[in-house]
Amino acid sequence: xxxxxxxxxxxxxxxxxxxxxxxxxxxxxxxxxxxxxxxxxxxxxxxxxxxxxxxxxxxxxxxxxxxxxxxxxxxxxxxxxxxxxxxxxxxxxxxxxxxxxxxxxxxxxxxxxxxxxxxxxxxxxxxxxxxxxxxxxxxxxxxxxxxxxxxxxxxxxxxxxxxxxxxxxxxxxxxxxxxxxxxxxxxxxxxxxxxxxxxxxxxxxxxxxxxxxxxxxxxxxxxxxxxxxxxxxxxxxxxxxxxxxxxxxxxxxxxxxxxxxxxxxxxxxxxxxxxxxxxx
Length: 280
Known about the structure:
Strand content: 15-25%
Largest sheet: 9 strands, mixed
Order of helices and strands: HHHEEHEHEHEEEHEHEHEEHH
Number of strands: 11
């Protein structure tokens, strides 16, 4: 099976549109359709339901996404290990929970780009359980999550402490008056605290995986949510969001995990030193 077939499948699975996938991959629509057909023939299954106006993944297509991502990562790592890569760059495979990307990792990736010129980044999103598995199996080099595992072969290092505050589109309200509260996924320990503190008089209207999604949602539809303080500075300054003054504050620790015997331990340490918390 050719890697480009899997790359094409992943692009179509994200866009669910042959024309958009073709534009993103700089291919013709006919080439995209041909690759998907070839992949379906090799696997002996149908990956997309084409009976509707818009493409829809089949159950087999959904199952392939995880394996396709892993195979592409392993192929990229293989190229580096056997010297097929055309550059001398070090490859760093980074995995994270979805909600952590917006909180601290966007700035960190920019710092790697500016300070570690010889590093080629690959980023992927996984569940906490998958992150642990991928680190142990050496599919990814470093992972970020809220609750680190206690596993002998894995090193856990705190890289950030993120204060969370309750903000609302309505000015001057108290915790007893809040409506349309959005629950953001910050990991089990913080989630349980929030639910316990607000269970008496507040019903969570929606649950969202990323702070950025929750921020955009409440700015558009109104409501409130616990968001990282650094994400709230500008909306509060502009008056589009307001702190709920009597609300309890929480903090969320973020950890990096990697294999103790990783052959990239020095590179990982250099990358982690770009977090202000680690430097101090």
